[in-house]
Amino acid sequence: MFAFVMMKQKDIQGRALLDYFLGKEDVQLVLHTSYGPPEQMPTEVFFRDLSDFSKLEILALENCRGTVLDVGAGAGSFALELQEKGIQVTALEISSLSCEIMRQRGVEKVEEGNIWEYSSAKYETLLLMMNGIGLAGTLESLPAFLSRLKECMLPGGQIICDSSDISYLYKGGKKPTDKYFGEIDYCYEYEGEMGEVFRWLYADVITFARACAAVGLKLEVLQRNRYDQFLCRITGQ
Ligand SMILES: C[S@@+](CC[C@H](N)C(=O)[O-])C[C@H]1O[C@@H](n2cnc3c(N)ncnc32)[C@H](O)[C@@H]1O
User: Is the CB of 200 under 6 A from ligand 1?
Assistant: First the structure.
């Protein structure tokens, strides 16, 4: 959680997204990772619409019901599509600049805030996309994170989220032995400025289902794709 608070202060991702949104050409957002060389983070991905969504993302949209909290809404891709469908959605986002972008893009209900502290309302659906469960940071924090989400859910509510089994990253090499292999350290860099390092969690289905069961939740896989990504629904047992 500390890492995300620090990220908010610098808001490196938000600065790059805002520049892209304002039409700056050649925005170079670099992602430093603990598993390999720095990667270019394509900022346009944050602005994808229905025509850009993967099958898995479309299925996520189709499975949203009732009031929705889009957790870590980014530039509002999902919030805008849900609004379009007449669904009541609140976009929760820790990055001030991303919140500003969402308002300018027409997202009606934007809340700047941290999901670890959020208490404004409860929802029928919590939506966490683009590996939204990554916000848990570590496998150790996953049960606490799921409990946190549960507190934001109305009775009978659901969590719709995606994650990936990233074993493929270690093919031909050894998985880390000092931590769960799905825990990655990331750091954004934009225009020569580095953000804070933050932890991001990718969970394989079995590990994820176990963490859900530990806090009285049940995981159902809705779809898997050939990139080892999966979409799931999490509900009370
Ligand atoms: C990978 S992006 C996903 C964006 C969006 N869901 C999408 O699919 O386009 C994760 C987002 O979560 C936001 N975020 C990170 N930590 C957060 C927290 N603790 N509470 C709320 N939002 C957070 C980041 O600023 C970032 O915009």
Answer: no
Q: Cβ-count burial of 2 within 10 angstroms (0-12 exposed, 13-18 middle, 19+ buried)?
A: exposed
Tens of pLDDT, residue by residue over 204-236, are 999 999 999 999 999 999 999 988 999 999 999
* Distance from C-alpha of 188 to C-alpha of 201, rounded to nearest angstrom: 16
Q: Is the CB of 4 under 6 A from ligand 1?
A: yes
Alpha-carbon span 6 to 1, nearest angstrom: 9
The rounded distance, in Å, linking the Cα atoms of 193 and 129 is 27
Is the whole model's pTM more than 0.85, yes or no? yes
Q: Are the C-beta atoms of 202 and 163 separated by less than 8 Å?
A: yes
Q: Is the shortest distance between the CB of 87 and ligand 1 below 6 Å?
A: no
Q: From residue 119, how far is each of 79, 113, 115, 145, 185 by CA, in Å?
A: 19, 10, 8, 14, 28
CA of 158 to the centre of ligand 1 (A): 19
- C-alpha 96: how far from chain center: 16
pLDDT in tens, 183-207: 999 999 999 999 999 999 999 999 9
SS3 199: strand
At 225, the amino acid letter reads N
43 CB near ligand 1 (under 6 Å): no
